[in-house]
Amino acid sequence: MSINRRKFFKAIGVTGMTVIGFTSSASPGSKDEDTEFHGVLYDSSICIGCQACEKACAKAHDLPVPEDELQAGVLRKTSEVQRCVVNSYETSQGEVYVRNQCMHCNEPACASACLTQAMYKTKEGPVIWREDKCMGCRYCMISCPFDVPKFDYNSINPKIQKCDMCYDRIVQGEKPVCVETCGDALFFGTRRELIAEARKRIAEWPEMYVDKIYGEAVAGGTGYLYLAPVPHTELGFNKQLQNSSYPSLTKSFLYSVPSVFVLVPTLLLGIHEATKSKQNKNENHD
Amino acid sequence: MTSPAYPVTNEKQNQSIWKFIFSELKPRGKWLTPFNVISIPIILAGLVLMVIRFTHGLGAVSNVTQEVPWGLWKGFNVVTGVAFAGGAYVLTFIVYILKVEKYHSIIRVTVLNGFLAYLFYAGALVLDLGKPWNIFNPLIGNSFGASSVLFLVAWHFVLYIFAQLIEFSPAIAEWLGTRRAHKILSGLTLGAVIFGITLSTLHQSGLGALFLMAKEKIHPLWYSEFIPLLFLISSVFAGLSMVILEGSISQKVFSNQLTDKNRQERKNIVHSLSKICAFGMFAYFFMHILVFVHGQHYDLLTTPMGYWYLLEMIGFVLVPMILYFYSYRNTNILLTKIAAVITILGIILNRLNVSIIAFRWDAATHYVPSWMEIVVSISIILIQIWIFRWVINRMPVLGNSPSWAKHN
Ligand code: SF4
Ligand code: SF4
């Protein structure tokens, strides 16, 4: 039922778009580009939970340096003053660390939600937030499946806080600060390189990893990729998330808009004319 | 083209119009009515809180959290309010497109209501924006987020406000007594109506589509890919129920403006509106059952959220639907009004459920609006009622148009 409806909407959507010539509502990030997006591979099996990346991140972005220590069972969260966190989980393989920050989705829900393109998927891969465009509507927060963007409610000129993969450094050919700080647990490269590297690690040390790269498929693929010694469901990841991209959920609606703009007025005008002539006729007969 | 009926020079005419407007700005009638006594302090408090919100940040007034970033102002004043303003597009469709003339007498007041409602929802939106000075970014300039549902909703909002202003403008022209403008503006009505209905179908459903990406965040009993359709269908009877309720209130408050003929007409209108509501709710209820069966969440019905869902579906959809059917069969106006009130409560419940209550129902910290948010929400509505009253008392909205405007 749902498939049929979607197909139907798509079909009339496409017709409508050709009629109006309106094609700009395509999703950000086209297919050939996303293979060359840059990203970061995070390896839970290597991470020692030292929080050096957290501290380096805070310093690099003028944020207060986090002082609280990791503790299994205590969930620390990113906030309006913290872009990344490392958490500790008690798992079937003992204590495992996980780092959380923006996933830099291939097809980011936040960017497709943003009505001013303040949230923006750059061609290099990072999803960045542009202050001069943002109007603070917080629709990006509603839409991000990972609950990443954080809003500064106590400021009169609030910012959206989230990891931008140190975009400024990347355009200058440098690595993100966290990757630079960390030993081996964080690895920077194009998404293709990262997946190859992850596969290699899994093949070389099968006892260290479960055979899955988190981020390869979830939410349509993400720029951050995760390797771990235990299934990701043990590490606080939301198991409900879908594997297809989130912007695709609104596509059928968006595609139907141009056709509604063509069909509904035509229909209304048609009915209007029909009722008018009917009325005239009635009057004549009277 | 010159108008021979008006030999006066433009300047002179303008002067007298300004004088006229100035005199109309003054309040009329008694001051110490119960409504004034209650509403004035609330509005004043609301205004103070709005100032605090802009000088100290959103967090000083509002309880919204990182998990539930949209609170009462968006969930109630915008998402819920727009549904109630749906009466305008439904009635303009019936009167101007289907030409069912018997509803003509309430069209102006409904359009006025819709227009003011949208204006004030836009206001609530600005209040809620973190960086309101960037509000024009999506409208002008280089920042078109065309893949955003909110972008479309924002545009449709703005355009629809203009469409409604045009639809209502003949009343303003009659009030000012400008015949030429009246003629031109009346000629624009049909275009504005067609445009307005199209925009309404899109943004009524668009408000639902806003939540499509929050797939895992909204409780499965409320999330479905059909939210846009459900929002659209429910806006029909939500809007009409508001028309019924608002009509019965203004009939009392502004009774001096109505003739006996008007009154009888209004009874008939309410009666036939109850039928449209009944069928609209039937379609809505049926859709909900389909969505529910499709979603296969039977096990969730016995959870607390499940009971909450059943309460909404049975108590606030099924019951008022039956009441509407029953009151139509028996021509029971009182029952129709009761059904309207229950329906309105049900729509409030539904929109709040989707946008706030069932949104991140599983979050560690729940969002509960602060009293300050509530005061601001209410004062926005009260200011709107004040302006509504001001207009009704001056322009030919409820009563009849001046005779010169009849045949336009
Ligand atoms: S994780 Fe959220 S904020 Fe980051 S890119 Fe994806 S949708 Fe955007
Ligand atoms: S809060 Fe800013 S970045 Fe987020 S969707 Fe709104 S305008 Fe875009």
Describe the structure.
The complex is a heterodimer of chains A (286) and B (408). With 286 residues, chain A is of the alpha+beta class. In chain A, 36% of the residues lie in helices and 14% in strands. The radius of gyration of chain A is 24 Å and the shape is elongated. The N terminus of chain A is likely disordered. Chain B is an all-alpha fold. Chain B has 12 helices and no strands. At the A-B interface, α4, α5, β6 and α9 of A face α2, α4, α6 and α7 of B.
SSE diagram, text form:
The complex is a heterodimer of chains A (286) and B (408).
Chain A: H1 2-20, H2 31-34, E1 38-43, H3 52-60, E2 85-91, E3 94-100, H4 109-113, E4 119-121, E5 127-129, H5 139-143, E6 150-151, E7 160-161, H6 167-171, H7 177-181, E8 186-190, H8 191-204, E9 224-227, H9 248-285
Parallel strand pairs in A: 1-9
Antiparallel strand pairs in A: 1-8, 2-3, 4-5, 6-7
Helix pairs in contact in A: 1-9
Chain B: H1 10-25, H2 34-56, H3 72-84, H4 87-97, H5 104-128, H6 149-176, H7 179-209, H8 227-253, H9 260-295, H10 304-329, H11 333-357, H12 371-392
Bound molecules: iron/sulfur cluster (2 copies).
CATH architecture identity of chain B: Up-down Bundle
Oligomeric grouping of the chains: heterodimer
Shape of chain B: globular
Averaged pLDDT of chain A:
82
Structural class of chain A: alpha+beta
- Amount of helix of chain A: 25-40%
Number of domains of chain B: 1
Please name the two chains that share the biggest interface, counting residues whose Cβ lies under 8 Å from a Cβ on the partner chain.
A-B, 65 and 61 residues
As a whole number of angstroms, the C-alpha radius of gyration of chain A is: 24 Å
Bound molecules: iron/sulfur cluster
Molecular shape of chain A: elongated
Major sheet of chain B: none
Radius of gyration of chain B: 22 Å
Low-confidence stretches of chain A: 1-35
Rounded mean pLDDT score of chain B: 85
Order of helices and strands of chain B: HHHHHHHHHHHH
